[in-house]
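PROTOCOL LOG
Step 1. Enter all chains and additional molecules of the complex.
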Amino acid sequence: MRNRLAVVVGRAVRVLARMRGGGSAIPGGIALRISPGFLEHAIGELPHGVIFVTGSNGKSTTTNMLVSVLRSHGLSVFSNPSGGNLPQGIASALLAVVPLDGRVRDDIAVIEVDEAYGVGLSQRIPPTDVLLLNLQVDQLNRFHEPDRVRQMLARIADAASRRVIVNAADPNTAALGRAGRPERELVTFDVAAEVLAESAHGVAAAPSASVAHADEGRALPDPSVLVVRSEGARVELEVNGVRASAALPARGLHYAVDAAAAVAAARSVLGERFDLSTAIGALGSLGAVYGRGEVISARGQQVEIVMMKNPPSLQLNLDALDRTPSRLLLAVDEGTPDPSWIYDTDLSRIDHVDIVSGTKAWQWATRLAYAGIPVGRVIEDFPHAVDAFLALPAPDGDEPKTALVNYELMMQLRLAMGYLDLEGGA
Amino acid sequence: MTTVRIVHLYPRELGINGDRGNVLALHQRLEWRGVAAEVLEVGPGEALPNDADIVVIGSGPQSALDAVNVDARRHAQALRDHLGAGGALLAVGAGMHVLAREHSDRDGAMREGVDVLPVTVAAASRRRVGEVLGLPDTAVGGEVATRFAGFVNHGVTLDVLDDATPLTQLDRGFGNDREAREGAPAAEGVRVGLAVGTHLHGPVLPMNPSLADELLSAALLRHGSSLPPADERIRHADDMARRSRAAIAARLGRSGVSV
Ligand SMILES: [Zn+2]
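Step 2. Run joint prediction.
Step 3. Record the structure below.
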């Protein structure tokens, strides 16, 4: 009864919120207040279970890939929209699809889970499978240190009733896999040593004192999926001795690893039904995820958005640039409260910045001064900076302009360029 | 010819929050002035050279502090000798905790530190995270009023012992033992001669170049020379840093104060 009420009221709030142009997590929050058990009621008993996708980077991309691969095999999948990875966001997404009884009819749920909220969430909806992508230095102002996140990931993984799928190329997640309970199935995906050796900064795993003991615990199984080649926006995967190449939504080894993660998870869920060429086709059909290597066009301009969510995402995205950007906007605001880590980033892939913007603009300009990288203008106010950036002459040939921005300004930039859909707005 | 030797202690373990930026600032400011400089990284198990001019140790998580704490005690005498011979030291965050007289472990129990900085560091009941702004302690009441600015992110309280002084008197943000309020500044960090400890990220030296130049002047003095004047590149970097501090001051409701 409470669930029915939660659906009706939540839906009504959702309609109102959408009429006012808002998105968001509010309807889901209200549904959860009416029925605290709304989530487990909705997806607790799906025939193929519930997969949680978590880690420092690549959650949205991997979730998107995994959903696509599963759907291409004929499964119907419930998932939360990219970025809506808090309980309220998941509940909002459910409100969009559930019938009045509040129960999802899909075969399986794939849920992108925030590291911190995932701990509580994994108690409310015990996942059947947990996919651990990586542990990198991320949001120190919020998480304080990687070790706390390690503990969060360990607790989320511990909630899996059936299977844990880990990235063997990240010593942190590899150790979490080894430390898990032996009765649970352990699946890995990995990156070939040659591929790692070729990349400028590897997989940018968080350093940790406790990883010194990484070879303790159970042995890791051979990888279910191996990245054997990563070049630009293409990846070659090896599955069961067979190699196949897939197009990625954006450039870089981190996207190649996300693809391996998604294929490994899909393979373990689908079992005999898994087909590599179907999976490859599904990966190739994906567009760029929101602001991750996405090229948007408006006002006659093409702008590629490169997001710097945290140190590893900035480094890996810089490493993956296929050219030195000739028109570059760099902007960070209070969504990145302490940008100290920009001094740990190797900036050798850029040779100048046209416009630096956002409330942290002067801190970036200081960093660039020490790197000897010239700056055209500093325009703190972001909307003015976007106008000035779009007014610059376009690069030669087919090169888009490049915007290196944090998450919050990525959203603002999309809005400024007329892209009105909001990430996470179910 | 003079070569200034900068030692970066535990760069891998204690270097999670832009700590390389402090070493970069020292190195680059010398290079821009035409002074030769060398950076030597010293990890666990390795020896501290006896000809260092400036030792830098950075910030890191509790797990890293636990990992280097015992190793660091090997350097206690070498670090005291270094300071006794006019060498300079910058210790940020967990690096300051390691060098303290005592600091708390993961469970809050106090344990012995390297005891190079006369402070004790105890676990606080809550985390202290945010931007800070304050006058150098040496400038309080004086004519020079260029403020330090930065970002703190830690979970400790700090007691400054003996005749050491704080580095800064904050007018905004979290200090050693409390948060600064209007009319009630809070002490931040510690300074004993040329040894400086602080929780300021930014990192602290590029953000507050006067402190960088103070350490560099001390280093050059040991070689019987003085710091050459700033060139255009240094003035530009320092202008960007001053505007960074002004932006922090504005966010903290202190628009227009001297930075
Ligand atoms: Zn501290």
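Step 4. Note key features.
The mean pLDDT of chain A is 87.
The radius of gyration of chain A is 21 Å.
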